[in-house]
Amino acid sequence: MSAVRAGIVWNPSKTQREDLEAAVPEGFSGELSWHETSPDDPGRAATRAALEAGATVVLAAGGDGTVRAVAEELAERGAAAELGIIPLGTGNLLARNLGVPLNDVGGAMTRALADEAAAIDIGWAEIERSDSARERHAFAVMAGFGIDAHMITETDDDLKARAGWLAYVESLGRAVSASEVIDLTLARDGADAQPEHAHTLIVGNCGTLQGGITLLPDADPSDGELDLLLLRADGVAGWADTLRNMVWDNGLKRVLTGGESAESSASAAHERFAELRVELDEPRVFEVDGDELGEVVRIGVTVQPGAVRVR
User: Residue 281: CA atoms inside 13 Å, Cβ hemisphere, count?
Assistant: First the structure.
């Protein structure tokens, strides 16, 4: 551990510096620098400060928003340092997908300071709003519009603070009601745009959600591709088909038969891509790794292979 120069980017709304200091393993003899996030900047400026202090690994101590901000800064800078994750949020989705210890700050800290790193991809979403304003955001896990975005906007913050990720389950009914099928066009990997219709579009670098639910069975964060899920259920029969597709086709059946690729159905389409262009007939709320970005009308998604090395 002696060669490690660690910059700890920590979210003060999730933990105290004293608690993180107490979790540093006894054998650690490297250098530490401390960089607090702010409500206006969940981690990019703090990551820059850590790098300027000479960090060779940046530890993101916070929720999915903190992890995403740190990963975004590192990916944009060409992985100037490795990433360590101290999961302290509600979802902790990247940590779940990579096997980082949850509810164990000491274990996560030890892993981040001692383990070798492996490269993962990062997705980039370029969004355009109705007023033609454009933004670019990275995501390490998933991005999209529809049910997932509405669950974020419909979830009660006080309940989330008390119940954790189970608060999202409480908002599911409202999210489904708010997700109406719309027309859109998709252009995949440079091909011509094709008409589609859906109420939910999810692109993912990782496939597992809270509770062990696998939404994108083929997703691999280090394969140089992203996975796409389109949901177009409309009515009871459509939702029954979606449920069957998720629980049986891409759940129990896959386990029993050893299926290698995700199966699509009339209401749920699975695909893979490296570049995707989406144009919506109506504005929809868009999210990246649990951060709600507001309504968009156009989306461009690309993958940056091996963008960040994670411990």
Answer: 11
